[in-house]
Design goal:
The complex is a heterodimer.
Chain A: H1 2-19, H2 25-30, E1 40-43, E2 46-49, E3 67-71, E4 76-79, H3 85-96, E5 103-107, H4 113-116, E6 128-132, H5 135-149, H6 151-160, E7 169-171, E8 174-178, E9 183-188, E10 198-202, E11 207-215, H7 226-237, E12 243-248, E13 253-254, H8 260-278, H9 283-289, H10 301-316
Helix pairs in contact in A: 8-9, 8-10, 9-10
Chain B: H1 10-23, E1 28-29, E2 37-38, H2 39-49, E3 54-56, E4 61-64, E5 75-81, E6 90-97, E7 104-110, E8 118-123, E9 129-137, E10 142-149, H3 163-168, E11 173-178, E12 191-198, E13 221-228, E14 231-238, E15 247-253, E16 260-266, E17 271-276
Parallel strand pairs in B: 3-10
Antiparallel strand pairs in B: 1-2, 4-5, 5-8, 6-7, 6-9, 7-14, 8-15, 9-10, 11-12, 12-15, 13-14, 13-16, 16-17
The chains are: A alpha/beta, B mainly beta.
Protein name (chain A): Quinoprotein relay system zinc metallohydrolase 2
Pfam family, one (chain A): Lactamase_B
Family (chain A): Belongs to the metallo-beta-lactamase superfamily. Class-B beta-lactamase family.
Chain lengths: ~325, ~280
């Protein structure tokens, strides 16, 4: 398949160049065809891959969001599985290149396909899938639709292996996971990017995996509650992290500065939409001009801004 | 990338057909990007309207929708009505989303002297689909207009964004009256524009209860009656293709000083109602 060839040439090369760690025999045995995802070490025992700011396609194999893993003394916790089983397997390849400890937890930060279409790759690892308590409900009402609607952009080959794998361990508020002398705090947020956002904080290094509560470069998408997101930015901002692995954007990113751009975008969007609502401008017209002055600051602005404006309008007109 | 993919060649059309065909028994055969033939409609038509002949709307009813559904859960639709002496007034308008699991989104019925000229609402659109409006006029004829809406890209889905919020405020209503932009007209003769909003998940019943593993029954606004004083402005029989928090913006001939009353009922038998005074000053 062409993607394997491409990955061999492009990614393995980059991988060797930056990390200098060759395949281990165990890795090759466990995940035969998966060339490791080119992850970057962001702190002691913390690795992450920076996805491309793009829509999910056949060509990029759904590798558009940031995924990562944390190695404890006993086991590994994976944060998001990526946008295809191919990516999930490549992530497993990257893990196996660093450690032979078992993957105990696969943590899904929220419901979106770019973060969990790779879940099925972890089936044989025996990992427990962990998510926000609202995640199973969200996947029940969207899973089938996601599997259908991504077929056009991703192609039949990639979609064939993808399954909706809901979490079995649910987080309701805040809960610690221990992966061996390493405490991870998982926090379930109120509706913001989605109604099932989960963040992961590694106490040992102070790295915060924000999931899509933090977008950099890639325009944030609002699929939960704009007001909820704005309201929780201060709480998020208050987390004493050294730096962040955002859901999209540079790995790692300075904290809490990583939140500044999205906060500004939300303020502009909310104020434009509020003004339109007050003036009685119908939704169809209002969403065309809202937040246009933010256009130059973001990638994928045209793909997502109008949709954000629609969501914001439907929410803010109840204020 | 996804946004720019269009039906440029027969091969893509075949792939698309395979995709929709697997989920939906019959599907729009895409001939070109803007006006694919609708085989779905051919089979749907008889179920909704029997053998009755449907003629083109010729401006009596017109429909506007975005060419691409930015958010699959909230697709704004505008209907404009322009009757003439020959057709008589519009009695009902049926709004249909061909490719949705429940295609008939709503049937609106207008009061005899309501004078409704414009109606905007929001729909869920699950796939590449025609959205059509069929008006039944006083002369007994059916007249149809339609527009094609492409499915949204990215991770947008026709589902609730914030389920807890929707249920917490179930049945709450809001009515806005928009002041007329043209000044100098007599208040008695000008149409009033209003927006009615109802908090309701309007959910599809396609999701499963995590504890019982049974599908949660569909829960949506089934009936809606908007009246002023004793006269009917419009009523609606609705389905799950109407977006969560159903929203209707419409223009009609208002009578100053008479209250606007809204009664809604949902599939669980819950009734919601509210009343708003309509002062002459707000017209």
């Amino acid at each position: 398949m062409s993607h394997a060839t491409r990955r061999n040439i492009l990614k393995t090369g980059i991988f060797f160049a930056c990390c200098g760690v060759p395949h281990t025999r165990a890795a090759l045995a466990w995940s035969m065809s998966a060339d490791p995802l080119p992850v970057k070490q962001v702190a002691d025992g913390v690795f992450a891959f920076a996805g491309a700011p793009a829509m999910m396609t056949r060509q990029n194999e759904g590798e558009i969001c940031n995924v990562g893993f944390i190695i404890g003394d006993d086991s590994v916790a994976v944060i998001d599985s990526g946008g295809s089983v191919v990516e999930g397997k490549a992530l497993i390849g990257a893990i196996r290149a660093k450690t032979d400890r078992p993957v105990r937890y696969l943590i899904n930060t929220h419901m979106h396909p770019d973060h969990l279409f790779g879940n099925a790759a972890f089936k044989s690892s025996g990992a427990t899938v962990v998510g926000h308590h609202n995640l199973p409900r969200a996947l029940e009402s969207r899973g089938t639709y996601y599997l259908q609607s991504y077929r056009e952009a991703m192609g039949d080959d990639l979609m064939a292996d993808i399954r909706i794998v809901p979490p079995t361990k649910l987080i309701t508020d805040e809960e610690d996971l221990d992966i061996g002398n390493r405490k991870l705090t998982l926090r379930a947020w109120k509706a913001a990017h989605t109604d099932n956002d989960l963040s992961v904080f590694d106490h040992k290094t102070g790295v915060l995996f924000t999931g899509d509560l933090c977008f950099i470069d890639h325009l944030p998408t609002i699929d939960g509650s704009l007001l909820g997101w704005i309201a929780q930015l201060d709480i998020l901002n208050g987390i004493k992290a050294k730096f962040a692995v955002p859901g999209h954007g540079a790995v790692p990113s300075p904290w809490p500065q990583a939140l500044e751009a999205e906060r500004r975008y939300f303020d502009v969007l909310a104020s434009d939409i509020r003004r339109a609502i007050a003036d009685g401008v119908p939704m169809t017209n209002a969403v065309k001009s809202a937040a246009q002055r933010e256009r130059a600051n973001w990638k994928l602005f045209d793909e997502y801004n109008q949709r954000n404006a629609i969501a914001a309008f439907a929410e803010l007109e109840w204020e | 990338m996804f946004a720019t993919i269009q039906l440029r060649n027969p091969l893509v059309a075949v792939v698309l057909f395979a995709f929709f065909g697997s989920a939906i028994s019959s599907s729009a055969w895409a001939q070109n990007a803007d006006s694919p033939e609708s085989t779905t409609w051919s089979s749907l038509k008889g179920d909704v309207f029997g053998q009755k002949f449907i003629e083109p709307a010729n401006g009596i009813v017109s429909i506007e929708a975005p060419k691409r559904a930015e958010d699959a859960a909230i697709v704004p639709i505008d209907l404009h009505f322009k009757t003439d002496a020959a057709s008589g007034r519009i009695k009902t308008v049926t709004l249909i989303v061909d490719e949705n699991p429940s295609p008939v989104a709503a049937v609106f019925r207008f009061g005899v002297d309501a004078g409704v000229t414009h109606l905007a609402t929001r729909l869920r659109v699950n796939a590449y689909s025609y959205v059509r409006a069929i008006a039944e006029t006083e002369d007994g004829k059916l007249r149809m207009t339609e527009t094609f809406v492409k499915a949204s890209g990215g991770c947008s889905a026709p589902a609730m964004k914030n389920s807890d919020e929707a249920l917490a405020n179930l049945g709450k209503m809001k009515l806005r009256v928009f002041s007329s932009k043209s000044s100098g007209m007599e208040p008695m003769t000008r149409a009033t524009e209003m927006q009615l909003m109802i908090r309701h998940p309007n959910n599809s019943g396609l999701q499963m209860d995590q504890v019982t593993r049974y599908y949660i029954p569909a829960h949506f606004i089934q009936g809606l009656i908007v009246s002023q004083g004793n006269r009917l402005i419009m009523s609606m029989e609705g389905g799950i293709s109407i977006s969560e928090d159903p929203n209707f913006r419409f223009e009609f001939d208002a009578k100053p000083g008479e209250d606007v009353k809204v009664e809604a009922s949902d599939t669980e038998g819950k009734k919601f109602q509210d009343e708003w005074p309509l002062a002459s000053s707000s017209l």
